[in-house]
Specification:
The chain is mostly helical. Helices cover 50% and strands 3% of the residues. α4 (76-98) runs parallel beside α6, α5 (131-146) runs antiparallel to α6 and α8 (197-207) packs parallel to α9. The longest helix is centred in the middle third of the chain and has 23 residues, at 76-98. The radius of gyration is 18 Å and the shape is globular. Zn(2+) binds at residues 102, 107, 179, 184.
Amino acid sequence: MQFHDLSVNETARTPCVDQSTESDAIDFDSCDGMRQAVFYCRLSQPSFVMQYIQQLIRRDRKNVDEILTAPEGQDVTVWKYEHLRQFCMELNGLAVRLQEQCTPQSCRQMTATEQWIFLCAAHKTPKECSAIDYTRHTLDGAACLLNSSKYFPSRVSIKANSVNRLDSVCRRVYRIFSHAYFHHRQIFDQFEDATALCERFTTYVLKYNLMSKDNLIVPIAGAADSAAMEAQI
């Protein structure tokens, strides 16, 4: 089974894509003076925000607050959009691991606890899918939407009428975390210990008001408190 890669080359619709590589990337820890000016200039280039987020993750993936805090002057909507692209790419890793246990036979429905059964929106009329098919359809659908030239023609600025689509993507991809936590706990724990992805995602959606706290059913210690404290500042 293959999952959609959000890191496709978008040069055709964003001709100003930054061509820098990791080897010539700015050292974000030592930006001052002219380097600081260059840093903020490059943040306005289509792929550089994603590169910056990825460098923060590589530096310390468990420093969630630092990873999610936008640099001064950064367009917050673009920041949220790029983070969501990054989440979907990383979730492919959890999806691949889930295939070891989560099959159409073992998990016939996309569930999280006995109270939550989710319908798959990838069909003309939403219907039940096996959990692994729901996961695949959701990540493929998120990739198609976030790469859509209709809704997101630019990675430098986001159209106002496209912003609300981020909420629906967040709600759907969160269900992958919840299914893994409640039905494949060992896989979830191993993945979370290595990536802190669910903690980061939970903090992200609370920090930027993309999901209601009531819908966040995976217990993540400290995530809600951290986001609430940030919102009060």
